[in-house]
TrEMBL record:
GO biological process: cell volume homeostasis; chloride ion homeostasis; potassium ion homeostasis
Domain Amino acid permease/ SLC12A residue range list: 85-574
PANTHER family: GH08340P (PTHR11827:SF72), SOLUTE CARRIER FAMILY 12, CATION COTRANSPORTERS (PTHR11827)
Span of the signal peptide: none
Superkingdom, taxonomy of origin: Eukaryota
Name listed for the protein in its UniProt record: Solute carrier family 12 member 9
Lineage per the UniProt record: Eukaryota, Metazoa, Spiralia, Lophotrochozoa, Mollusca
GO cellular component: membrane
Region (Disordered): 1-29
């Protein structure tokens, strides 16, 4: 049925229920009424129509989707059988006795308990994740990637796929080993001198290739065939295992078992073939096999130890994800995966514990460590064990081949690795990933060249342990994020079980092989870094964002503004932006000067909410956020809708920030008639990297969204309103700085390697020249901002701070003032070049009643009582003659040589709005040049000389 048909059904359903609801208002609940019967019929019809449709949200993530192939597998055939068969695999008949012989019964129990503890913790995490939503094809990869995000999901998915390939090769080698032990030269089912040739490794490789080809044929047929095959094979394995257990009781007498000819470490002497003793259940035999006795493994010629034997054991029981890997073909993955996986784990664990006990009580250690297939020699019917070996190993390899191909298909569908995995998405009409199966088969063929089961086992165990640690990490992250939508129907897990699963997996990884683990982790992080720089799907919902939110909220609550201290002060800037197209340089400058503090870009949209169908801010905010990302600045965006800019500004000042992170400084552009320039064009080109996806070109077209700059006379505000914003900011106890001519700021020229620029600070209120010898909060704030700028990368190595000391006349007292200023800067840990400027000619032009006597340099820290009066006097605006302002401007321009930015004192605006135009006019006159200038007014202390 098509999607349109499904939609029609939804519409008809809605129409029917609507008509019924008009006549009756009884809620539609499950019951025996005709109303309920009608509801259930319609719901079943709707569900059937949706079961073959693929409905997606606007963001592209499926709400309800069917797998590419028809979902035909139930819990038993789709989960229990593949998991149980894969967990039996080589350990059940080929390495069970080897583990007991090397480790002893007690350590075998400890290894089984440890292995199944790790598996159980992981199973709980799998069950939790798989019951928290619709699970698509890809199994463990799908769960990890949707929980941890595409970067770690893709890298871990790749490692998990490699683990599936290695595991498939491991079981094929075990299958061939069983064949050659019975039908090879000297095999138990052939006469001496006959049997399959196995004198070279290439014969073994040929047999492995043929075995793998059989698995390939079954996989090409599809999931249904695998389900039928696995159910039948599991029945065979259960029967054969029961025959082993029955044989231990039936043959309760001594039997000599010949050691295989391919064991070079057994004691061969002449024509006598060494033998191991089967005693039947015997207390002495049990006692002898209780403790470990690690020796050389005759197939690899390597000394065994606890970690190596554990790796062999664990690599044989790694099938817990085989059911999850078939999630795309399960009828109900959320129910089948928990039930089938937990049942299979309990079943196999019980089987191994019983079988290990029986083996330890009936076989001597010499027999256990020198013959992998001793069980068939003591069985009531030898072919039972042979059939069991073939069935368990072949089915396990089959499960990993199918599971691996599904993971590869899922990786290809997610398009994480560019076009490289595009062929892996090709499927047959029934949805079977044909190409993925062939690719996996080819890679297994390569791994088969290793040839030795015990050599493949350690690296296989490491890859699976890392995968299990990742599954537990994904579940732990979801649990710690405390997202309301994480509410799995499987509730038998906590963050403790996830943590134990992670610790257990990682500990055993390093115990088995620190080298393999380190290489695997390095590969994982390498892929994660590569995928991080690639434009990846964002509709998955990365857990990192949820975790960041959870932690940020917690620490914001801990950030108490009442405990703030001047020693740890930093600027928390609100930059008011009317049009970002003409403010890009200023936005970048504020980003440089924030010093790891809060940086908010604010914008007021003038209007009333009742004039819009929906809040226009909701549509505009993403565009601003994209602009910030495009410019690579670390800023938050705050937009508001208000009837006027003044009202909106007050809203932004009050609400910007959160908790202890609130704005303490407001930055405005300067109000003048300068023709605005389109500075967005300068920052529009972004460096591209070869591994970035084409999605980079999908940035919103800023040209069409942000209006082009208007002429200098076309403004949103008049002079009175603009100065009123400054006054409001000061009333709200915020520091203020005004930035003029920043469209002329050229950071590229500043950062030239051969050029040295200065950041100039004039700590004097030119509107109150009688206070030139005092340092108030504004002067200190100017020094702090300038010092921060010189601490930033780029500015630090190419600029130098220059402080101008204004004196009334050059005299003997000048050196004393310079020394005091130098000492004061040292106390503030500010490195600066001091330049002495004579103020004598300016004072002659200044016609006021101010006292022109010689003053000492004073700070609030030195002369508290005197500075209070001086601070008030310095802050006040004082209208001065125009000729004086021109003289000040000329003086400043004389010292603009090699200056990158100039900081000037901003007096408090006059209390009367009638004086606002004069106030702004005088600020304009004093900075009438083509040079970036910052007017600064500070209210709170921002520097400290204390430790």
């Amino acid at each position: 049925m098509s999607l349109n048909t499904a939609n029609d059904d939804v519409e008809n359903y809605g129409a029917d229920t609507a008509s019924d609801s008009d006549s009756e208002h009884t809620p539609l609940l499950v019951g025996s009424s005709s109303k309920d019967s009608f509801f259930n019929r319609r719901l079943r019809r709707l569900t059937r129509s949706l079961s073959v449709a693929s409905i997606r949200r606007e963001d592209g993530e499926p709400i309800l989707s069917a797998a590419a192939s028809q979902r035909v597998l139930g819990t038993f055939a789709g989960v229990f059988c593949p998991v149980a068969l894969s967990m039996f695999s080589t350990l059940l008949y080929l390495r069970g006795g080897f583990v007991v012989g090397q480790a002893g019964l007690l350590e075998t129990f400890s290894q089984l308990i440890l292995a199944y503890f790790i598996l159980s913790m992981t199973v709980l995490s799998i069950c939790a994740i798989s019951t928290n939503g619709a699970l698509e094809g890809g199994g463990a990869y799908y769960m990890i990637s949707r929980a941890l995000g595409p970067e770690f999901g893709g890298s871990i998915g790749f490692l998990f796929y490699v683990a599936q390939v290695l595991s498939c090769a491991l079981y094929v080698v075990g299958f061939v080993e069983g064949i050659l032990e019975n039908f090879g030269q000297g095999g138990s089912f052939v006469s001496p001198g006959n049997g399959l040739p196995d004198d070279t490794d290439w014969w073994k490789y040929l047999y492995s290739t043929i075995s793998l080809f059989i698995c390939l044929i079954i996989c090409l047929i599809g999931g249904a065939m695998f389900a039928r095959t696995s159910a039948m094979i599991l029945l065979i394995v259960v029967v054969c295992t029961l025959s082993v257990m029955i044989s231990v009781f039936a043959k309760n007498y001594n039997i000599l078992v010949d050691i295989p000819d391919n064991n070079p470490y057994a004691n061969f002497s002449g024509n006598n073939t060494p033998s191991g003793l089967y005693t039947g259940l015997n207390a002495t035999t049990m006692r002898d096999n209780l403790f470990s006795n690690y020796t050389i493994d005759y197939s690899t010629s390597k000394e065994m130890d606890y970690a190596t034997v554990f790796a062999i054991l664990f690599s044989s029981v790694t099938g817990i994800l085989n059911g999850a890997n078939m999630s795309g073909e399960l009828k109900d993955p959320s129910k089948s995966i928990p039930r089938g996986t937990i049942s299979a784990v309990c079943f196999t664990f019980s089987t191994y514990m019983i079988l290990s006990t029986l083996i330890a009580g009936s076989c001597t250690r010499y027999l256990l460590i020198n013959d992998y297939v001793f069980l068939q020699q003591v069985n009531i019917w030898k072919p039972f064990v042979v059939i069991g070996i073939f069935a368990s190993t072949l089915s396990a390899s089959l499960g990993n081949l199918i599971g691996g191909s599904r993971i590869l298909q899922a990786l290809g569908n997610d398009q994480l690795f560019w076009f490289l995995l595009k062929p892996a998405t090709i499927t047959t009409k029934s949805g079977n990933p044909l190409v993925s199966v062939f690719i996996t088969w080819f890679l297994v063929q390569i791994v088969l060249l290793i040839g030795k089961l015990n050599a493949i086992a350690p690296v296989t165990a490491v890859f699976f342990l890392l995968s299990y640690a990742s599954v537990n990490l994904a579940c732990l992250a979801l649990e710690l994020a405390s997202a309301p939508n994480f509410r799995p129907t499987f509730v038998y897990f906590t963050w403790h079980t996830c943590t134990l699963g992670i610790l257990g997996s990682m500990t055993m990884c390093f115990m088995i092989s620190a080298m393999y683990t380190s290489i695997s982790l390095a590969l994982m992080f390498l892929f994660a870094i590569l995928l991080h720089f690639r434009s990846l799907p964002t509709t998955w919902g990365s857990i990192s964002q949820a975790l960041i939110f959870h932690q940020v909220r917690k620490y914001l609550l801990m950030l108490d503004p009442r405990k703030s201290h001047i020693k740890f002060w930093r600027p928390q800037i609100l930059l008011m932006v009317s049009n970002p197209r003409q403010s890009c340089e200023l936005m970048v400058f504020c980003n440089d000067i924030k010093k790891s503090g809060l940086y908010v870009i604010g914008h007021v949209k003038v209007g009333k909410l009742e004039d819009f169908p929906t809040d226009p801010i909701l549509d505009e905010t993403p565009r601003w956020q994209q602009l910030v990302s495009h410019m690579k600045i670390k800023a938050f965006i705050e937009l508001t809708l208000a009837p006027s800019v003044g009202v909106g500004f007050q809203q932004l000042v009050r609400i910007s920030g959160l908790g202890g992170m609130k704005v303490n400084t407001v930055c405005f552009g300067f109000y003048d008639d300068t023709m605005p320039t389109d500075s967005l064009l300068k920052t529009k080109i972004r460096k591209r990297r070869f591994f970035l996806g084409t999605e980079l070109s999908n940035f919103q077209d800023f040209d069409s969204f942000f209006e082009t700059p208007r002429s200098g006379n076309d403004k949103h505000l008049d002079i009175t309103q603009y100065v009123g914003l400054i006054q409001d900011a000061l009333k709200l106890q915020k520091n203020v700085f005004l930035c003029r001519n920043f469209q002329l700021l050229n950071k590229e020229s500043i950062l030239q390697p051969n050029d040295k620029s200065y950041i100039d600070v004039w700590p004097v209120n030119f509107f109150r020249p009688d206070t030139t010898s005092y340092f108030d909060n504004t002067c200190l704030f100017m020094l702090q901002l300038a010092c921060i700028l010189t601490m930033q990368s780029g500015w630090k190595s190419h600029t130098e701070l220059r402080v101008f000391l204004c004196v009334q006349s050059i005299s003997e007292n000048t050196a004393v003032k310079e020394k005091k200023l130098s000492t004061f800067l040292q106390q503030l840990r500010i490195q600066a070049k001091i330049v002495i400027v004579s103020f004598e000619q300016l004072l002659q032009r200044f016609n006021s009643d101010a006292d022109h006597g010689v003053h000492e340099i004073r700070t609030a820290a030195f002369h508290e009582s005197e500075s209070e009066t001086s601070d008030v006097k310095m802050h006040d605006y004082n209208e001065v003659p125009h000729d004086y302002l021109q003289a000040v401007n000329a003086l400043l321009q004389d010292h603009l040589n090699q200056s990158a930015v100039t900081f000037l004192y901003l007096p408090r605006p006059p209390t009367s709005a009638d004086q606002y135009p004069d106030y702004l006019e005088q600020l304009t006159a004093i900075s009438n040049w083509s040079h970036p200038t910052v007017f600064v007014h500070g209210l709170q202390p921002v520097t400290s000389t204390a430790l």
